[in-house]
């Protein structure tokens, strides 16, 4: 009895995406091929890996246990390939990472690159996605993790996450005639979404803090100086999520992607995405 690595990769993609359609997008297969892979894995093990929950298919306890083993097997497989293919990953490797995800992703990113490209000279540039994207397009970066619109066709999808309004528990957005905001600079999609929503609902607002640093935005929120718009996993621990009942409409979800320049090694990009998807999916809201 042998477990097929390609089928295990599909199973992990299903766990990360939460659906067969989402998994198909991650592994570049059709939804029917995803279903076939999952069925074959269940046949090999003689145990059901999926169960129906309402209208959705979810992993069974055995399915979740197999995902845990599959992540380790795929990581070891990637390390073995990287060991023998490392010469092709030599030279400089310039990587961009948004400030938002430094706490969650800096260590996994560097660890994965050390395994996959041990002979490369790695340079990491931390900046907002709006600044990293043109650097990638101009060939000044090889890889970058970026925030993107939900329906993006750009790069490998690592995670889709809610974007929320947040403020200090003592901040009352309805009491302010003109809503004070702490936001990233122009070009940030969160800023675009927030100001568009407020204009649509004719809500007076004023940007009182602009920073490319997530800790600065979070500090302004914690101090009660302003409300902000962040990915749900970036809400400060001592802040709250504001709701439509408080006069602030829901915002679109953000998709976190791994994007690459045309000159980047596609095998490296694929394996790096596989190794980062797990840490990204384990991000949780406070």
Determine the CATH superfamily of the largest domain.
Periplasmic binding protein-like II
Number of domains: 3
Q: How far is the first residue's CA from the last residue's CA?
A: 42 Å
Summarize the biggest pleated sheet. Answer: 5 strands, mixed
Provide a count of the helices: 9
Sum up the overall morphology in one term. Answer: globular
**Which residue ranges are poorly predicted, with pLDDT under 50 across at least 5 consecutive positions?**
none
Beta-strand content: 15-25%
Secondary structure tally: strands: 12
Helix content: 40-55%
Q: What is the N-to-C succession of helices and strands?
A: HHHEEHEHEHEEEEHEHEEEH
Radius of gyration, taken over Cα atoms and rounded to an integer in Å: 21 Å
Write the CATH architecture name of the largest domain.
3-Layer(aba) Sandwich
Organism: Pseudaquabacterium pictum
Family: Belongs to the LysR transcriptional regulatory family.
InterPro entries: LTTR, LysR_HTH_N, LysR_subst-bd, WH-like_DNA-bd_sf, WH_DNA-bd_sf
Keywords: DNA-binding, Transcription, Transcription regulation
């Amino acid at each position: 009895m042998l477990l097929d690595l390609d089928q295990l990769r599909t199973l992990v993609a299903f766990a990360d995406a939460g659906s067969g359609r989402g998994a198909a997008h991650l592994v570049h297969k059709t939804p029917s091929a995803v279903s076939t892979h999952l069925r074959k894995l269940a046949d090999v093990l003689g145990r059901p890996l999926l169960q129906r929950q309402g209208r959705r298919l979810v992993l069974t306890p055995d399915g979740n246990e197999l995902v845990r083993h599959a992540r380790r097997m795929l990581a070891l497989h990637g390390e073995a390939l990287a060991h023998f293919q490392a010469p092709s990953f030599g030279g400089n490797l310039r990587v961009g990472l948004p400030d938002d995800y430094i706490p969650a992703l800096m260590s996994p990113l560097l660890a994965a690159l050390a395994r996959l490209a041990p002979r490369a000279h790695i340079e990491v540039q931390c900046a907002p996605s709006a600044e990293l994207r043109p650097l990638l397009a101009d060939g000044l970066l090889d890889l970058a993790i970026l925030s993107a619109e939900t329906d993006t066709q750009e790069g490998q999808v690592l995670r889709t996450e809610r974007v929320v309004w947040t403020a200090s528990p003592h901040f009352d957005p309805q009491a302010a005639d003109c809503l004070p905001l702490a936001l990233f600079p122009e070009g940030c999609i969160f800023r675009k979404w927030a100001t568009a929503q407020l204009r649509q609902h004719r809500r007076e607002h004023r940007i009182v803090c602009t920073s490319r640093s997530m800790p600065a935005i979070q500090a302004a929120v914690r101090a009660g100086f302003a409300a902000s718009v962040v990915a749900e996993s970036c809400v400060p621990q001592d802040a709250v999520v504001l709701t439509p009942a408080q006069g602030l409409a829901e915002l679109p979800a953000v998709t976190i992607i791994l994007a690459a320049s045309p000159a980047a090694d596609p095998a490296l990009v694929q394996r790096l995405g596989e190794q980062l998807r797990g840490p990204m999916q384990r991000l949780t809201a406070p």
